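Repro:
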Amino acid sequence: VGLDVVRKNVEGAGGRVEIESTPGRGTAFVLVLPLTLATLRALLVRVDRDVYAIPLASVAEVLQVEPAGVTSLQGRWATTVRGRVVPLFWLRQYAEPGFRPGRPARPVLAVLVHHQGRWVGLVVDRLLGEQEVVVKGLGRLLAGVRGLSGVTILGDGSLALILDVPALIACLAADAARDAARNPSDASRDPGPGSSRDRGSPAETGPAGGEPTPPRETAATA
């Protein structure tokens, strides 16, 4: 009777129960549930033409960082937030490993995320707001990509990649360390306004039409 109740509940949720029996070894009951049952609250951000979903559980706050608030520490960019040094990583570096950001000529948006007991800033082009997203599998082509935990389909039919924040930070930090080792003086060089390395657009803080209002922003300065 108990297993019949389980089967009905699983099938009612769109899943199924499979029984695998091996003579002399035993029987296994496998519960198969659809991925559409997995949802999470996420902050949607845009980087160039790509949209990413950052799980809200990992988000501490969102800052607008002035150019004067961006400093170079040991070949890596950082800012100071209420007396705490916060490393900065441009999310564009994840999609474009060859991209090396220079000192920004205009304010940038940084999403502060929790990582190993400290804050890390992810620089993005634009905030699209908070949204409940349905987690889908990555499929065979993207299953082994570090920094991703899934994909979701947005209301307009476009896709957003769901970030695995710990793996993403580890990946970006490793890339930054290798780049700093290869070019010890390059990261601290100020390219000045108009440099080809300053590829970001002016920080856009307004939400897209029809999107929820993004979190409150505060300014960070050195």
